[in-house]
Amino acid sequence: NSYLLIYFGVHQPSYWDFEFTENAHYTIELINPWEMTIEPMEGMFSGKVRVKLPGKPYLALRVIKGEG
Fold first, then answer.
1. What residues form DSSP beta bridges with 17?
2. Is the distance from CB of 30 to CB of 41 less than 8 angstroms?
3. Element (H, E) at 1
4. pLDDT per residue over 24-68, tens digit each?
5. Closest by Cα among 39, 30, 36 to 59
6. pLDDT at 30
């Protein structure tokens, strides 16, 4: 429950919506395996969140639950 990995494969969404609990905070990282990069998104997230994505294939999001 403290770690989530979403792999998009050939799909190229321009955003992804989350509905996190209000009493916890989450960090989100964009993983590009082809370019071998991990780009953290600024801030800590809770509640309803829309993450903007670059619309490229084969990306992933890593979500890590932090301390409340």
1. 50
2. yes
3. none
4. 999 999 999 999 999 999 999 999 999 999 999 999 999 999 865
5. 30
6. 98
- Residue appearing with tokens 């964009």: 30
Local structure of 27: helix, strand or coil: strand
Beta bridge mates, 31 = 38, 60
With H, G, I as helix, E, B as strand and everything else as coil, classify residue 43: coil
- Tokens in use for 30? 């964009």
Helix, strand, coil percentages (3-state) for the chain, rounded to 5, are 0, 50, 50
Cα–Cα distance between 41 and 53 in angstroms, integer? 11
Question: pTM (2 decimals)?
Answer: 0.89
Residues 6+ apart with CB under 8 A from 41: 27, 28, 29, 30, 51
